[in-house]
Amino acid sequence: MPKKSNSAAASAAAAAAIKSSKAPSAAGKAGAANGDAKFIDSIDPEDPEYQRQLMRPAEIKEDLTLMEQRKRVSLILNSEAFRRELEEIVQSQLKTGGAQPASLDALRQLSDLLAPSASSSVAAATTSVLPVNDLRGGDAAAYQPEERLLRCKLAAVYRLVDLHGWSEGIYNHVTARVEGASEHFLINPFGLEYREITAGSLVKIDLAGDIVDRGCTVFGVNKAGWVLHSAIHSARPDIRAIVHLHSNEALAVANSRCGLLPLCPEALAIMDEVAFHDFHGIVSDESERPALIESIGQKATVLLLRHHGVCVCGATLEEAWRRTELLMTAARIQLESLRAAGGPDNLWLPSEAAVAAGKAAAARSGANGWSFGQLEFEAAMRELDGAGYRTGYVYKEPRLRAPRTGQGSHRSRPRHCQRRRRLWPPRLEMRLMLLRQRKQLNLTLLSQPKRNRSIGAAA
User: Residue spans with biased composition (Basic residues) (predicted)?
Assistant: First the structure.
């Protein structure tokens, strides 16, 4: 009997609580009028939406909450102000130098992911370097995609020249013809060292050397140095990139009477494309142009300037850079060979048949589907990106590892490994299901009033 009376009393109390929740008290109404109402006073237990939320499993509620949080995060990440502030933080931290913590590396990778730039392979750098691709937001939108990529590649070539030790302060030039505008060219601003040149700092000029787009710096161009490039670009429309250097090795070969000797495969690959020009000082006079055009002709891609330096040309930046590498390697080997032999008379030169065979082998070299110099240039871009230069280069083959098929894949593993692979997911699902059921049971027990739980336990 006492148990029944207690149960009836509990039911009556629950009904009274529900009734009181339907009709808020006068104090509750007064609080609502004053704006001090509690959240519980605004709940209607008879509302279908409220009942639906009560019946909704906890997992679904959690998923919906996470979806709302992701929406807020997406709005923040897609905000132009957030991207600009993030880029400013990364740039300010990079300029301070010193070791970079993992948090800064993560911020930099997030900045590269959010910024409208070309896809690239980005790795953490151990030292502070100025990024090659500094085109962000409105700066990137000001150029066509082809010009953005060309700017990134040309700025990366300047960095490669500097890393190889072939730069000479703010002097010398590497130029490239802009796609779709045969009379427009990109050149370095006269005042920046090669290690400071970025995609946005390059200056666009016309064939006369007049500035079309100054870039992001206050510097102009060295018109005296542009005369040499303009002469070659105007005479050879097939040449779209020129690397002009004053390296010691190339200058030594240019000044020697024997010229470039066939002492290595690198020399054999380019020696038929080499021409010489008797240089008469700094090219600042237009009268030097006809002699330059006559010296390079219509076939040469390497012009050795006696007492001055070298101009290496190509139909693309990749070609020009690869020929530059070949020339520098051949020049260095020739100088070391002459030093070891004590002069050209003591050198052992290959026969004409061997030279012809070497030239033919060099002409056949290269990978299928890759143009001349493209494979080597892409490897150099990976090296720069791996060092944190953020080149912005779009890789022809971004994946270095092929998909694993055949031997070594899970299909060719022993049977016991395959069996474990098949059995593991069901076991995991079973454990997760048990955990969910236990969690739901705990939530159900916790949601019951203590009095009801004690009554149920006593019953």
Answer: 410-421
